[in-house]
Amino acid sequence: MSVIAFLGTGTMGLPMARNLVSAGFELRAWNRSRDRAAALANDAVAVVGDPREAAQGAQVLVTMLSDAAAVLDTAAAALDALPEGGIWIQMSTIGLEGTEHCARLADRTQTTFVDSPVLGTREPAQRGQLIVLASGPDAARERCQPVFDAVGQRTLWLGPAGFGTRCKVVVNSWVVGVVGALAETITLAQVLDVGPERFFEAIEGGALDLPYARLKGALMIERNFDDPAFRLALARKDADLILAAMSERDLELPIMRAVADRLRRADEDGHGEEDMAATYWATAPELASRR
């Protein structure tokens, strides 16, 4: 099995790294906050002090970081140390522009670049059931697939590098849109004195029923956002990446602008470290009644 340099062991990266070890890969892990990576020492992972050290002697570099700036800054140091013939698997969600910058960085360092963001949150990551949206050279598929099989239940190969990120932007527009609309539906139910549970009873088992909405809806009804599967601040980042893609294509999507605005308001009101379902607070009944 290949030696993997794994950069970024946060909420998603940590369980992904553990699943790679379980699949038989040798890992060298790095995280900006070293204590987040330290837990991997118990999994026979070499926790190193900088990205360059992680990349030395590795055949594969995986980045799983919070945003484009973090990916580019970290990868720039690591790619210089990655041996000739190494592959860079970029699995973070960084948008179209960020991915284009990564592709140019890979070209400058003569590294094979595979753009492969993932669908899923903490629990699917723990179970190795993410969906990998892979894109890159056909010649890289055979080497990448064992990595993807270790962290995901399914891989979609979507074409040249960059198309994985394009698909992720599209899917994220659905995810943040569903959660934003759900928050307003639950608020409306509460203001009209209709228990939100009745809403879920009404749609149960039909075409309108959606397991993800039930999951996030339960958090909103209980107002319990302190154990985030996906942080609201990251959902706001994803919404901003969608707006950037819209702007680049001169496309106007008013609903998405409204969803991004409510995420921004909830983040600025101090809910960024809570679950993304905390977008509920942007139109909670006690707030709506004052407008």
Low-confidence stretches: none
- CATH H-level name of the largest domain... which superfamily? NAD(P)-binding Rossmann-like Domain
Number of strands: 9
Q: Taking Cα atoms only, what radius of gyration do you get, to the nearest Å?
A: 20 Å
In CATH terms, what is the architecture of the largest domain?
3-Layer(aba) Sandwich
How many helices? The count is 13
Strand content: 5-15%
CATH topology of the largest domain: Rossmann fold
* Class based on secondary structure composition and strand pairing: alpha/beta
**Would you state the CATH class of the largest domain?**
Alpha Beta
How many structural domains in the coordinates? Answer: 2
Distance separating the two termini: 60 Å
Instruction: Please estimate the helix content.
Output: 40-55%
Q: Indicate the overall shape.
A: globular
Question: What is the strand arrangement across the widest sheet?
Answer: 3-2-1-4-5-6
Q: Mind summarizing the main beta sheet?
A: 6 strands, parallel
Order of helices and strands: EHEHEHEHEHEEHEHEHHHHHH
Indicate the mean pLDDT: 94
